[in-house]
Amino acid sequence: MESALVYQIALTRIPMIGYGLARELLKHFDGNPEAVFKARQTDLERIPGIGPLRAKAIREFRDFQSVEKEIRLLEKYHIQTCFITDALYPPLLRDCPDAPVLLYYRGQIDCNNKRVLSIVGTRHQTPYGRELCTQLIHDLKSYEPIIVSGLALGIDITAHRAALENGLATIAVLAHGLDRIYPPQHQAIAQQMLEHGGWISEFAPGTQPEREHFPQRNRIIAGMSAGTLIVETGISGGSMITAYLAASYQRVVMALPGRVTDMRSAGCLSLIRNQVAVPITTAEDIAEELGWKQAAKPAPVKSPSLFHEWSPAEQAIVDLFAEKNPRHVEEIYLYSGLSTTEAASVLLQLELQGYLRSIPGKMYEWTG
């Protein structure tokens, strides 16, 4: 079995090591989870937040048999994985301090250099909410956004369905393993999404859709996109959690203002009143809030010149972009073979010379 995947999964199973500490460990070991498990106790103890007890838990981890069992399940259900240092990892989610280090997925989840909008709302949608959600997505078609939601009853499934009907990619963030679909009545539309989007989860195959998993997955919905739209919601519940998470990540939160007498609009009105969300009524409002000035048009990809004379450090960076463009800054640090300081200096020089430009999500794109 692929050793890298074994250690990536194992990193998520160490007792007392949460999202933040897992990322701290990766930071100290150049993004290599295998190096975490092979480090000396004294070296681990010196890492901020680890200390003797957690260092011992890392050194004594032996549950690789269950990790290998999980990998067999991944193969059985055609589930793929995406580690936080991978270029495919959703760039805006990577910026969140509590982002999972490992994602499981099926289908196509590439969000690099793309417009992503999360849409959530109550499971008990009104005809008003359903119709307006459907109309907004239809009117956003020319901007070609990826629509992210949670595959739940109500507004979520309306958003996924409207995206597919308008030829837009849509991604479902699930609160369970990808060996199943919940609720089961959404199996057919979930299968359609594999052709025009995909499924994402931080939960290993075999994980049941437990109640506490749903608020946990909401941070991924909020973190993946530049903006989150709340269509309808009561004063409490998952959509409100998602809205406040998006606000905490400094993302744009938008809400549809409904009737003041409708309890399923009470949450939206509260978000607007408390200045957590901006009120929107049209697709143009959404585009303006997110800075979508025109329909998305993919820029032609340029390859680095083979005839320019580069310094050895520059060549190390240039070679990376010859293989893939754009690239995340952490990926450049990891694979260039340069120190972080040297790589950052070269990136700055190439950007000043017009060969590179920085794009949202801590990405760099070759333009020279």
Automatic annotation (TrEMBL):
What InterPro entries does the annotation carry? DprA, DprA_WH, DrpA_SLOG, Hlx-hairpin-Hlx_DNA-bd_motif, RuvA_2-like, WH-like_DNA-bd_sf
Biological process GO annotation list? DNA repair; DNA-mediated transformation
- The Helix-hairpin-helix DNA-binding motif class domain covers 9-28, 42-61
**Record-level Gene Ontology MF annotations:** DNA binding
Similarity remark: Belongs to the DprA/Smf family.
NCBIfam families, A to Z: dprA (TIGR00732)
Which named protein is this? Answer: DNA processing protein
